[in-house]
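REQUEST
  id: r-88c1
  op: predict_structure
  target: Oxidoreductase
  payload:
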Amino acid sequence: MVRLRVLSRLASAFTTPFSPQDFLRLVDPLSSARQLRALVTAVEPETADSVTIRFRPGKGWNPHEAGQWARIGVEIDGVRHWRSYSLSTGAGQDPAITVTAMGTVSTALVRNTKVGDVLFLAPPEGDFVLPEHPRPLLMLTAGSGLTPVMSMIRTLVPRRPDADVVLVHSSPCPEEALFAEELAELADQFPGFRLVQWFTGERGRRLDLTTTSDLDAACPDWRDRAAYACGPADFLDAAEALWDREEGELRVERFSPVLLPGAGGEGGRVTFERSDQEVEADGSTTLLEAGEAAGVVMPSGCRMGICRSCLVPLRAGQVRDLRTGEVHGEPGELVQTCISAAAGPVNLDI
Ligand SMILES: Cc1cc2nc3c(=O)[nH]c(=O)nc-3n(C[C@H](O)[C@H](O)[C@H](O)COP(=O)(O)OP(=O)(O)OC[C@H]3O[C@@H](n4cnc5c(N)ncnc54)[C@H](O)[C@@H]3O)c2cc1C
Ligand code: FES
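RESPONSE
  id: r-88c1
  status: 200
  body:
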């Protein structure tokens, strides 16, 4: 810090009219009073479509708890996009994200990230974390849903001799299973960790959570364990319904919001007033998606109604909350654009 303050004073003496921060950024790309940044220190392929990106965050980062996620900002064609990614390393280890290429941002991260790149980010968040007191655990994951659970396994299994964890992970085939080698080694080394890899290709079907028979076979004492689940929406919906019926304890991490089936209505014309853009949006397209498609620089974060980074003032019209179907809107009201759609003509102050 002392070094930075001295540099800052020297920079002030020589750099007017540029701010000292502008020049310090050349010396230290992580230096920014306004925006937390991170330097990419390694990019490691995991499968054909996913990589682990390790990074060193600048000032303002808090160490993550196992299972938490962070918002990551990436510049694509001059526009900064924000998405959330679980931190896949164990608590207390240098942070990393493991990204599977899927759409705009994830594909850019997987295909283009290089060591030395600077990412924008926000401090870790989330309450999908390990229980406070040790308990037998069942982890149910599918696809990239393994990432927060991997952080928990890396935190718990090698450090706690009393750990008792069963992981049932579903993926199409061994080549597409994240962290497969490391998980197999952990299962060999630590008797308190049992791994069930469910390869849908080999078994000819998905893990069925609509009845208890697959779980009874994979983990006979599953009812006695605190359960954690992360994966695609239908996988989690089935797990929640099963645990509701069995009155068990289940924590779920979702990567996308739960929308009410058929919540979308007729939609309408959306005006992005200060950006001078207008677009016709159907009743199931979020205002965030509609704005981004029209080229408006929309604020966003989790994109699932949690973080409130996407709030935009409403000037006129009404919006529909796609999670509940509720229609609301008063002039000046802050609208969560990631879970709201137009309910008739809408005018937004952005
Ligand atoms: C708390 C949290 C943690 C997350 N952790 C991870 C992680 O560790 N690794 C990771 O790869 N992604 C993770 N995601 C998902 C990530 O934030 C992005 O949504 C994902 O990378 C797609 O963004 P995109 O810009 O590439 O796709 P977009 O261009 O924004 O969207 C493409 C389409 O894919 C859909 N989609 C988004 N995510 C999924 C998914 N997981 N499965 C199926 N369809 C999906 C979207 O609804 C959309 O229709 C997490 C999301 C949240 C909210
Ligand atoms: S982007 Fe997080 S609440 Fe909308």
